[in-house]
């Protein structure tokens, strides 16, 4: 199972391109007709009510999947420490039903690897698929990979010019975020770059989620469709 999509969908920059002629209230359903998965970003900035998740799920095809970005209260403010209550509050708000995919935990660039802190955090996570995106070079260590493998948590393979790209597969699924290779959140991926990512995904030979986060000039949906074609994947569910 390979799911390819974008990080978020609410981008005014797409209005005159990908969303040309599409009312804003239909942006999600329009994108979901072209990709097989989307990362929900709003969950990172504030706690979303269950009704929001239910509304988003209703606007997508039957076998669509969402990844959900974990709360920055947990990752950036509390920095993975003393998060029991915040974690319960966040996970209890999720109401995507069968459309629930992985939860993404994006760490701040100033957070260094601490094996004990990470081990305690992963032990608290509820059942389901979880992925961790570190942005500090100190995570490039076998100790980090071993902790993730012990909990079947995926290391996020990120591509960006401003933080480390650490390539490692640590779970029974892989998770990729493509932020723009040359310019963060901007640059489009060319055919050669997409072919190289397609090769890596084939070599991993496991369920894989890929999200294009090069959203600022509208490259993300085009790149998602192109990578799906490289991998002979359906562009999206039509059910």
UniProtKB/TrEMBL annotation:
Coiled-coil portions: none
Alphabetized PANTHER family for the sequence: DUF72 DOMAIN-CONTAINING PROTEIN, UNCHARACTERIZED PROTEIN YECE
Name this polypeptide is given: DUF72 domain-containing protein
Organism this protein belongs to: Lentzea rhizosphaerae
Biological classification of the source: Bacteria, Bacillati, Actinomycetota, Actinomycetes, Pseudonocardiales
